[in-house]
Amino acid sequence: MAERKVFQSVLGVLLAGVAFAALAPGRAQAAPMLVEKGRAAAEIVTAGQPARMARLAAGELQAYIEKISGARLPIVQEPSAGATRVYVGVSAHTERLGLEVGDLSDGAFRIASGPGWLALLGPDRDFEPVEPWGRRRLDSEQVDREWAGITGEPFRSPFHWLYMHYYPDLDAWEFDDAGTLNAVHEFLRGLGVRWYAPGELGQVVPRRADIPLPADNRVVRPDFAVRNLRYGYAQHGLGEIAAWNLRLGFDPGHRRLGHVQPGHGIKWVTGRPEMREVHPEFYALRDGERAREAPCLSSEGLFEKHVEYVRALLDHYGEPMVNIDMPDGYGGMMCQCERCRGQLTPERGANGAMSNYVWGYLDRVAREIHRSHPDRMVSGLAYSAYQLPPEKIETMTPNLAIIECRWRSHFHDPETRDRFRAIREAWLAKLPSREWYIWDYYLHGRPGSRGLPVYFPRLAAADLRELKGVSRGDLIETYKHHDLVDYRPTTPEHDYDPLAIDHLNIYVTSRLWWDAGLDLDALLEEYYTLYYGPARAQMKAFIEYSEQHWPGMNRDAERIGRALALLEAAQAAVEPDTVHGRRVQRVAGYVQPLYALREQLGRKRENVPSARVLPWPALARKRLDGRLDDEQYWPPLRALPLVGLDKGDPAPRDRGTWVRVFRAGETLYFGIRCVEPDTAGLAAGQGGDIRAGDFIEILLETSTYSYYRITVNSAGALADADRGEDGAGERWQSGAVAAVHVGDGYWSVEVRVPLAGDGARAVDPLLGVNGRMPSETYPWYFNVIRQRVRGDKTERYAYSPTGGGIEVVEKFAEMWSR
User: Fold this and answer.
1) What does the pLDDT average to over 30-57?
2) Which of 359, 383, 405 is the last residue of a domain?
């Protein structure tokens, strides 16, 4: 009760301050009113045919004034005589007042006032797409064909998914100028409105019966021109997500970076099958075969086609900048031809091994473009194995922009922060354009890392203050479910709010984009008070503890326990069915996996091996036959040896027994090869007990359940069991499929294990592996056992030796993926 009184007192002070700030000094009683005693006292005035964003801005102002006061201001093109006027957007009325916006850019705006009027305006140019472009997903091939007809080459068109940048709910394009809309949102912030997260639950709207006409004259320019939130599924137009972006002052940076994907741009040259058929020499040579998309940068023909493509894009679409970078994952797709291999510099480490090779090529392309289009730019990513600047180029071409890829949240480690600072300084010393951008990852809400309370507002503030005047802005890749519309998930895996934590990081970043010097402490105190109400103190404690301790929390049961206790105190401090209680509950739902992880970490594991599970999509197409010799399906990578179960010593005849683990989609694949000089003596078990003879066994402790056993004998019979304390035992069915092959001096097993996802046991405790794919944040633990029986002698081998029995959970090895 005392905490509620504190909350009400603080809220009252905040809103009283907002009201006071809205009044001109000395005019508190005489000021004209926008709303008086809950009645409209003003009109919203727009141009006769306002731009799309200006029309949206007028609607936003009208809607939120009504939410605040109950009064609905009419929207008109010609004001009534004697009415107080709120001019929204450029019009003949603002021109007569001499209000100019021609010198404003990047979303900047003007707020001005005078006797009986207020003006909220900025540049509002409507975006008009250039043909050809895609109106829907099915248009992709047609747009590619039209683009090939224009260029005369089988290029892909980056404009075939332009429709994803249209907001159907708002009837506006992401690329429409939003100066006036930013002005309206700034005015509403001055009235106390806050948009902390998407949707109704994410916003704070104060209630007031009176809204005076403010005395306000200022121009507001952002500290960072590019303020781009990029969602992993590129669906900006869905529901409240689009509106939230705009209310945060989002700007995609199209006037600088162009309208299409600002990374991995070479894929539009190499991506179509027609190009591969005509020019196989354009593609990287790997193990004697040409890659599907990865380029060979020693190919002069590719270089010429790349230059041709960029020039065509600049000429036809009028783009200000074109990305010319490598395809995603290129750090692991280096061409193995003789000319390419000689350009590697492995001595520069994982972040510089390909820098001379990649940047030597990109600089050549950029120089050709500079000759023909000296007023345009090209960009490349400082990324992966070519993050460091090249050593062999003293000064890069003047039309090159660099986009640095990194995780701002990882700057909790001073060495990581200092390393990126050094990389930036080294690049800028070679970069005449000084065009520097940041591609950051706020991807903490993905299913594979859900649960960890990754708060980093102070790291964001420190970084952006350092970048002001250096970086042109951010392209932040964040996450939302691809099937999420206004937080109504359609799959069990997506039964949580992916922005429950990250919304604060994004909100703070958005405010810093506009003013890197803002008072962060005041901003956070306001957030705790307005967003969590009676639970403000407890949520502040939880967030501040998490901000300090989330690094390493996924390996520390004590840290998890402390964070959960603080969050549980917040839940207890607020009624669950109130708006504040629902906000706390979204966080509680998000961190739910921490409870299972805490239990998992509570087991004492020492010196157990760790195995990374690599993706290998080809396995999804394989018909299981037990054979592991086809490298298309089972690549010769990461063979994990099986050693003596007790002491870990391999028996002489068993050297070469191993397991390989890969993933394809939401399925794990195990391939086990067992050396066996006496294949004729393989024993499949007797009396129906397949564990009585020769078998292999897979033991799985998922991030949400402990544990499962899947056994396959030498005859190919499979038996599975739920070995959890409250499990279903042998009634449980994993859904796994297995096949066995007996060869010359060995036998081998393939096992396909589909994952049912988190919450599968709640749907059917008798079917399916409960858990999603293991990740770095939420690893699994596993073991693979081989039993060999000859006469009265039994031998056992394991990937992780247990020192005794087979099912020793504390000795399971770690399994993770990324």
Assistant:
1) 94
2) 405
